[in-house]
C-alpha cells in the first residue's frame, strides 16, 4: 500500500465556470501587453523619417524644376538672338548687293528722263528694278518736299521767293532705303526763303495799315 504524497494532485485555483486551459493565457497576458508598446514607437519614428525624406525629395524636385525653367528661358533667349543675328546678316548682305547696283539704277533713271529707255533695254531695266524692289529696295525723294538732313544731302543751294522753308527743288539722285534703314540719302538741290523777305512783308503790312488809318479821318 503506497502512501499519497501530499500536494501532487493539487490543481491551481480556477474560477468557477472556467476551464483549466484558461489559466495559461492569463499568465501570458502581462508579457504580451508589454511587447505591444514597442511597435507603436517604431511606427512613429518610421513616419517621421519618411516625412523628412519626402521633404528632401520635394526640395530637390523644386530645385531641378527651377534649373529646368532657367535653362528653358536661356534657350529661348539664345534662339531669339540667333534669329535676330540671322536677319541682320541677311539685311547687310542685301544692302551690300543693292549698293553695288545703285550706279546701274542711276543710269536707268537718267536714261528714262532723256527718253532713251526703249526696246530691249527697257525690259531689262524694268526687270532689274522689279528684282531690287522684291529685295526690299525703296526709292525716295521728290521735288517740293521739305528738306530733311537725315534723308537728304544738299548738293546745291539757292534762295527763292516762293518758299517759306528750306525745300527740295530738284532731285539730283534719288535716295534708297531698305525698310527703315537708309542706304543712300537723296541728293538734292535746295532753296531757302530770301533773306529779309519776312521782314519786308511785315513792313509793307504795317505801311498799308498806316495808310488806311490816315485815310479814315479824311473820308469822315
From TrEMBL:
Q: Where is the composition biased (Low complexity)?
A: 25-44
Which InterPro entries does this one have? GrpE, GrpE_CC, GrpE_head
Report the principal subcellular site: cytoplasm
Keyword Membrane attributed = no
- Which keywords label this protein? Chaperone, Coiled coil, Cytoplasm, Stress response
UniProt lists compositionally biased (Basic and acidic residues) regions at 210-220
Where is this protein localized, as stated in its record?
A: Cytoplasm
Which stretches are annotated as coiled coil? Answer: 54-88
- Write out the ranges of the annotated region (Disordered): 1-44, 187-220
Stored HAMAP family: GrpE (MF_01151)
Function, as annotated = Participates actively in the response to hyperosmotic and heat shock by preventing the aggregation of stress-denatured proteins, in association with DnaK and GrpE. It is the nucleotide exchange factor for DnaK and may function as a thermosensor. Unfolded proteins bind initially to DnaJ; upon interaction with the DnaJ-bound protein, DnaK hydrolyzes its bound ATP, resulting in the formation of a stable complex. GrpE releases ADP from DnaK; ATP binding to DnaK triggers the release of the substrate protein, thus completing the reaction cycle.
What's the family?
Answer: Belongs to the GrpE family.
Q: Subunit notes for this chain?
A: Homodimer.
Q: Would you tell me the protein name for this molecule?
A: Protein GrpE
Taxonomy, top ranks, is: Bacteria, Bacillati, Actinomycetota, Actinomycetes, Kitasatosporales
Amino acid at each position: 500500500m503506497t502512501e499519497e504524497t501530499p500536494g501532487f494532485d493539487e490543481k491551481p485555483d480556477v474560477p468557477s465556470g472556467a476551464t483549466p486551459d484558461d489559466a495559461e493565457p492569463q499568465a501570458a497576458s502581462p508579457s504580451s501587453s508589454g511587447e505591444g508598446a514597442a511597435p507603436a514607437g517604431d511606427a512613429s519614428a518610421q513616419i517621421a523619417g519618411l516625412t523628412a525624406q519626402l521633404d528632401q525629395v520635394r526640395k530637390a524636385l523644386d530645385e531641378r524644376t527651377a534649373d529646368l525653367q532657367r535653362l528653358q528661358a536661356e534657350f529661348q533667349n539664345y534662339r531669339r538672338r540667333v534669329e535676330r543675328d540671322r536677319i541682320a546678316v541677311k539685311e547687310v548682305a542685301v544692302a551690300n548687293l543693292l549698293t553695288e547696283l545703285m550706279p546701274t539704277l542711276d543710269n536707268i533713271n537718267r536714261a528714262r528722263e532723256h527718253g532713251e529707255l526703249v526696246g530691249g533695254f527697257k525690259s531689262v531695266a524694268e526687270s532689274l528694278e522689279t528684282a531690287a524692289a522684291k529685295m526690299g529696295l525703296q526709292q525716295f525723294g521728290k521735288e517740293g518736299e521739305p528738306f530733311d538732313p537725315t534723308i537728304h544731302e544738299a548738293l546745291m543751294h539757292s534762295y527763292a521767293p516762293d518758299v517759306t522753308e528750306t525745300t527740295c527743288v530738284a532731285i539730283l539722285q534719288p535716295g534708297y532705303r531698305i525698310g527703315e534703314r537708309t542706304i543712300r540719302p537723296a541728293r538734292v538741290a535746295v532753296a531757302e526763303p530770301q533773306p529779309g523777305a519776312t521782314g519786308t512783308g511785315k513792313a509793307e503790312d504795317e505801311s498799308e495799315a498806316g495808310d488806311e488809318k490816315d485815310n479814315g479821318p479824311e473820308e469822315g
